UniProtKB/TrEMBL annotation, chain A:
It catalyses: L-glutamyl-tRNA(Gln) + L-glutamine + ATP + H2O = L-glutaminyl-tRNA(Gln) + L-glutamate + ADP + phosphate + H(+). Its EC number is 6.3.5.7. Residues 21-453 form the Amidase domain. Pfam families: Amidase. One of its GO terms (biological process) is translation. It comes from Methanolobus sediminis. The lineage of its organism: Archaea, Methanobacteriati, Methanobacteriota, Stenosarchaea group, Methanomicrobia. This is Glutamyl-tRNA(Gln) amidotransferase subunit A.
TrEMBL record, chain B:
Keywords: ATP-binding, Ligase, Nucleotide-binding, Protein biosynthesis. It comes from Methanolobus sediminis. InterPro entries: Asp/Glu-ADT_sf_sub_c, GatC. The gene is gatC. Allows the formation of correctly charged Asn-tRNA(Asn) or Gln-tRNA(Gln) through the transamidation of misacylated Asp-tRNA(Asn) or Glu-tRNA(Gln) in organisms which lack either or both of asparaginyl-tRNA or glutaminyl-tRNA synthetases. The reaction takes place in the presence of glutamine and ATP through an activated phospho-Asp-tRNA(Asn) or phospho-Glu-tRNA(Gln). This is Aspartyl/glutamyl-tRNA(Asn/Gln) amidotransferase subunit C. GO terms for molecular function: ATP binding; glutaminyl-tRNA synthase (glutamine-hydrolyzing) activity. Its EC number is 6.3.5.-.
Amino acid sequence: MAAWTNISGIRQKIADSSAEEVTASYIETIGKSKINGFTTLSDEAINTAREIDANGHEGPLAGVPIAIKENISTKGLSTTCSSKILQGYVPPYDAHVIEKLKEAGAVILGKTNMDEFAMGTSTESSYYGPTFNPWDMNRVPGGSSGGSAAVVAAGEAPVSLGSDTGGSVRCPAAYCGVVGIKPTYGCISRYGLISYANSLEQIGPLATNVADIATIMDVVAGYDNRDSTSINRENTYSDALKDDVKGMKIGVPDEYFGEGIDENVEKAVWDSITKFEDMGATYEKVSMPHTKYALASYYVIAMSEASSNLARFDGTRYGLRVDGDNWHVMASKTRAEGFGPEVKRRILLGTYALSAGYHDKYYLKALQVRTLVKQDFDKALANVDVLMAPTMPAPAFKIGEKIDDPLSLYLADVNTVPINLAGVPSISVPCGLSDGMPVGLQIIGKHFDENTIIRAAYSFEQNTDHHTRRPPEVA
Amino acid sequence: MITKEEVEHVGWLARIEIDAKESDAYAEKLNSVLDYFGQLDEVDTEGVKPTYHVADIVNVFRKDEVTESMSQEEVLANTEHKQEGNFKAPKIM
């Protein structure tokens, strides 16, 4: 494990020695890894670090290594969405977030494993094989940004980027005992993110602590005219790093503590809320009555958007091609061979939900339910500053436990998908253990009020030691 | 209920070849998910407007200006199937 697990420690080390030494240390750690968190390592990382040393460490992230999810385009570096259909694809351009990280002096270590096309909660559906949870190699790291969370937990990268469509940053953050944020929809440009469900997904950072999350947000958030949903709004996230929740009102939605919740998870989250009370906050129970319908609404919308977004992968211009006598046969054979079972299931369901005769029954209905879910958030957050709930209802499950039962896998997302439907920001922070596995506390805020959830998360971190726990094999 | 014939038809619409042996297994798994989606019928959505996007943005335009684009070489860099500066594909019609 590299010796420096946070950005301030790394920057101090770079000042004392060099960016090259820090990058080399992480590459050495990755070389010994057994978790299969990286899919590709960058050949340029050491050269970039040397250039940063030569240029006097300019930029807020000068020399700081970062890992990038396999669905975020990186010029000259493999970007396959962990799918056979994009095997060998090397983007000719950088995503907006990568441009910003490079401007800030970050060193891109490589690309991280994920559920194929970001569809999943376990990182088992990757063409590159599963990533293993560094806390227990028999368990999943969560998904779909499982690689991005696991490498941070294992000390193979201090920070990483993931993407969150229905909980894909917060779920693996909770399962791996790290911090992850899903920002407000429109807060970070999605230019260069290979889209799965474009009305729901946001890029979000993962780190070992809240201060590093704020630092990365300061760099990557902001307006980009190449993303038509990008919002032009200035903010400095590190301004929120204050140990102060006095007078903060917390709402606790009953519906997020539903049937099937692990009793240790429930206890850890309630202990956390009690801790907030000790720190000067107050809480009240709130009701969000449409929560039980959010999961079905989410999956109809996500699959419908996926069926459209993934239509571009046909073997004509990049990636896998299976030959056929005409274009239709070529595309059909290529997609049958190139997509894995879960991606095919979602495309088929999305195509069915949008087809003649079913559009209103499934897709339109799901969008109407989305409105009601969003109204639940508007009403609940009108009276409180933040909402708190478990990120995941149970700790990480065993590898293979749910892979053949799609519906049981979908049910794991019950506490994260409503947030994406409403587009509000949410952060997951470590708040305890259940049978030795990490538990995540989810703090949800109003649109563009990231600073309040960051302040709450930072205060919690300053007054507890959950975030200091490392996986037993790594510590 | 989605039948195996419908699975094959949806596969054709989605450009994913599904052989007869696979379609039974797909139908079973797709039906369990569609059953779950059926719970949306319980919700009274009379008069509720659909939310397509949460961002309060409409009609985002940019200026109609010519900007630099990628070179033909870059655009073709990810395929072996090219000829005289074009992508090479089998007949479409």
